[in-house]
Amino acid sequence: MTARGLVQLEKIVKKHGSFEALKGIDIEIRPGEFFALLGPSGSGKSTTLRILAGLDAPTSGRILLDGKDVTGADARARDIAMVFQSYALYPHMTVAENIAFPLEMAKTPKAEIAPAVREAAAKVKIDHLLDRKPGQLSGGQQQRCALARAIVRKARLFLLDEPLSNLDAMLRLATRVELKKLQRSLGVTAVYVTHDQEEAMTLADRMAVFREGEICQIGRPADVFAAPNCIEVAAFIGSPPMNLLTTRSTAGGVLIGGRHVPVAASLEAGRAVVVGVRPSAVRFDPAGIPVTVEVVENLGDAAILDLTLDGTPLRARYDRFPLPREGETMAVSFAPEDIHLFDPTTGRRI
Amino acid sequence: MKGHKLRLALLLSVSGLFLLAWIFPIFWSLLNAFKSEQDVLAYPPKLIFSPTLAAFRDVLFGPTSIVPNLVSSFIISIGTTIVTMVLAIPAAYALARLRVPGKKWSGFYVLATQMLPPVGIIIPYFLILRDIGWIDTYQGIILIYLSFSLPFAIWLLVSYFEDLPFEMEEAAFIDGASRLMTLWRIILPQVRGGVAVTVVFVFLNAWNEFLFAVVLSGNVVRPVTISMFNFVSVEQTLWSKLAAVSALAMLPVIILGIIAQKHIVKGLTVGAVKGGGRR
Ligand SMILES: Nc1ncnc2c1ncn2[C@@H]1O[C@H](COP(=O)(O)OP(=O)(O)OP(=O)(O)O)[C@@H](O)[C@H]1O
Ligand SMILES: [Mg+2]
């Protein structure tokens, strides 16, 4: 029972004709882990998940489940459960029959099926809907039905492809929390595809950030947030996204708005760098660099200020009230530990 | 508003005319089936007559009973339908789902088989069947009917299969179902409307076929369409018996039509408006 659900993807390449959808993916997912595949649309997340599920074959590379090579194995031989974005419920079957289907296929004795179905349905709170057809369920209920169908068999691996994207914002937040609780209580390994960085941040134990068929970074969400290892990850993680300013280095610092700003990293002077500062890390300091307030987006308990610093745009989070007015002049400063530095040619973190 | 009503009235009267033109021969034939032979030939035609079941009694229980012919027709039609469906369902599924070389041309092949004038191929068919000794056998006539019904059934079914989302099948694979099990438990129940339509069309085509039956069958195989000849001879044509036979031959068609009516209407729209016919 222990150490069930170890996933290893080794150098997975997927080509569609001459187009490389995946350019050599390496991932290792530990048993019991909630692992997110995060990235913009078209970056290869679904492709990776489908290859893992056995629905598509990789052009090259190996897939190991619990140490066993399953690269050539059929989907049904892999002992995996999956929740599709469209839910893919069987419309001609009732909820109970939908949930029972994986058990029937696994030749579970008849007497065990009904209680198992009831238990799975109860876990996702749809046990009062067992006699309905999927067409008679709301979107959220259909989503739960798909979840129940996936958890009923106690597979070793749980795959989810944007399972929350068809729900409204409120339901998405509520379901997110329940999903996490459910995965914890089952102790099952979960691989979760999303393009929503907030979802990945809140749900995942670790995540892989995809870009154009490659993985930019793998790590705990907090670590990736704190130290993105390339410009793309920096720009993708965090809301609103990190400010990126192209400038030059000075001795022990960088030039921002014509001023020397000290940084933690050691840099040779005079090289081109990209400076990254999160909106929440912009400090308002009367002795700092002057900025002009262009737009104030009031969020209620805070505001996002669209500023210009020496002609370049800069976004900052501001939570002191009253809020500044548009057109007003303010001043900002940056702490050395808040400054991320990237190489403009390679995009790598310095 | 007024233009709308006028349009409706025009539409109704035009379709009413068509319906009348279509229904009149059938009505006339049915009427004759209940007349005596003398009444049929009466001039001017009698609209008021004393109806009799004599014609039906004669064609069913008389010396030239058509009951064996009805049985023959059923064997041919049911046999053709079963073999067609058993082969067409997996073929259509494969054609809809797998990347098969030549898939694009298969549609043209189907149309071609439907466009060929039967007279043009009847002689080669006759020669082939004669050479393998299958003239006047059930397997022979069913084989010939298959050459038309199979492409047609596959072509009809493919559009239904193509309408089904891929993800549902993939979900079934992941849930542990084999391809065959997926076809049986997940796919077929959802295209049952399409299957019903195809069954009806294939059955009716076989049931109504006349030309091939005349040439390729004889004494053993003698479907009801040919049995009409029993009542046409050099000396006379027994009109009311002929009408009774055609009424009996139409009966299964009508019954099937009524049973499958809902599916047929849906099925015909699926071909035209993709996905429009499914629930
Ligand atoms: N059958 C195919 N033929 C050609 N290209 C394909 C095929 N399937 C996927 N692709 C391409 O592969 C790339 C990765 O697709 P994938 O579905 O994995 O993206 P994704 O990260 O899941 O995006 P999204 O968030 O939009 O779902 C895309 O550029 C897509 O166009
Ligand atoms: Mg996707």
TrEMBL record, chain B:
Annotated TM spans: 70-96, 108-128, 140-161, 182-204, 238-260
Keywords from the named record: Cell membrane, Membrane, Sugar transport, Transmembrane, Transmembrane helix, Transport
CDD domains linked to this entry: TM_PBP2
Pfam families listed in its UniProt record: BPD_transp_1
Gene3D superfamilies: MetI-like (1.10.3720.10)
Domain ABC transmembrane type-1: 70-260
Membrane topology note: Multi-pass membrane protein
Compartments where located: Cell membrane
InterPro entries to which the protein is assigned, alphabetical: BP-dep_ABC_trans_perm, MetI-like, MetI-like_sf
Biological function: Part of the ABC transporter complex MalEFGK involved in maltose/maltodextrin import. Probably responsible for the translocation of the substrate across the membrane.
Family listed: Belongs to the binding-protein-dependent transport system permease family. MalFG subfamily.
Name the record gives this protein: Maltose/maltodextrin transport system permease protein MalG
Organism placement in taxonomy: Bacteria, Pseudomonadati, Pseudomonadota, Alphaproteobacteria, Hyphomicrobiales
